[in-house]
Write a structure and sequence with these properties.
Largest sheet: 2 strands, antiparallel
Number of helices: 2
Number of strands: 4
Helix content: 10-25%
Strand content: 15-25%
Strand order of the largest sheet: 1-2
Distance between the termini: 34 Å
Order of helices and strands: HEEHEE
Shape: extended
């Protein structure tokens, strides 16, 4: 078994089994809304994932933003990062 946190709906559609946690993110989430084959998520109304996975209309075009600058991070130490530049 492999457990992956994934936000690309094309990848999620190919999964054998999904676990949807929500209904929101952060403090608004944390409840298992669904666990099972992908098709079963269509019946879970409070799922935000369901809306993206089974969208009724055409996909919204995504446009990349032009970078506006560079951010340099130095000496990052957090969780499994230790003094990373």
């Amino acid at each position: 078994s492999l457990f992956v946190v994934e936000h690309d709906m094309d990848v999620v559609r190919r999964a054998d089994w999904i676990i949807d946690v929500g209904p929101g993110a952060g403090e608004l989430g944390g409840d298992v809304l669904y666990s099972g084959p992908v098709a079963g998520l269509a019946a879970i109304d409070p799922s935000v994932t369901r809306r993206f996975l089974f969208a009724d209309g055409p996909p919204v075009p995504r446009t990349a933003r032009t970078p506006s600058g560079v951010m340099r991070l130095r000496g990052i130490t957090f969780h499994n990062l230790h003094d990373v530049d």
